[in-house]
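ok so for the tutorial part 2 we go from a plain amino acid sequence to predicted structure tokens. step 1 is just haveing the sequence, like this:
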Amino acid sequence: MNVLFPINLFITNLCNQSCPYCFCKDWITNDEKNTRHISLEDIDAVIDWIKRASIDVYVHLLGGEPMLHPDIVEIVRRMKRNHINLSIFTNGTGDTETCRQIIEDDCAKIWLVNINNPNTYTADKWKLLNRNLELMKFRGGDTSTRMEDVQRLQLGINLYYPNQDFSYFINLAKKYECPYVRFSLSMPSASKSNQYVDFEELFKIKPTLFEFIRNCVREDIAVGWDCIVPPCIFTAREMSYLTHFTSHFASICRPHFDILDLKAAYCVPMRGILPLYDIRDFSIEEVFERHTIEAKKYKEYTLPRCKNCHYLNNGQCQGFCLRYKADLMNQVKEPKMEKAPALDSLGKRLRHLISSNG
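step 2 — the prediction. this is what the tokens look like for a chain of 358 residues:
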């Protein structure tokens, strides 16, 4: 089975929401005058970059709100024509007819819709969200259909404060027959201007996290993690429960190639700390290898609280989010561009790195 490597492609900084926990808070705008949409020419550059790779990838389209890009339909059509696996990460409040067109063209197999509390939407926007969820829901599957050929709706939620209400979220997952949901504990943006969960707050939010997972399990809804969490905050019994009832739990992250303005970052929160690489100058294999090597010092840096921790000593944890650790290391730097030296056997080394990090 081939490894599919994730690429997050940010196609616009325009957003019609203002989520306090957004890890792109430093970049997005609600003002159309300050909007930066990726051009179709740059989309072609990304497609060419992917096609030259020696590995298989899948692309997540993000923003801002990707459905606000004026050429979104053409973008997904170009991806499909080039046989690129595609998911759309959206807040679900884009134009319904645009959603319908993408669905009819069968261009996106997964719609991951981030859901906030209903109190944060106007009545009209909440109706729009529900209308779009009805279009996006699981369809096309029968006993002879492969899962990769089925359109699937996934809902996502960010937990960012203790005792957060999530009942509406589970109700929507049931209503729109969503068999799998994803959740994140909010991580810091590049400037830490968003509302995020730091290490101390992990313990305060843990009861809400477990209540959320147990409620999903009771409703036969599968649960997956979005970002990393240090295992030391859980008891052995809790870890056993999480291992059994959730998927994609990780305490060590790997680069996902967050691409803004044709520059690949390790992740958006680490922009300005780890170098950026222009995809016109560097291959996917080169960027992955460089990011993996450059992140190593942050992953291996031992926080005072992590000394003698068996998870860290056994290479099972990086001690929480790298963006959070970076400040403690006093290593914040300006982004820099570099020229690529010759690198040998990158395809083999990349697969080894993926396997050792995943």
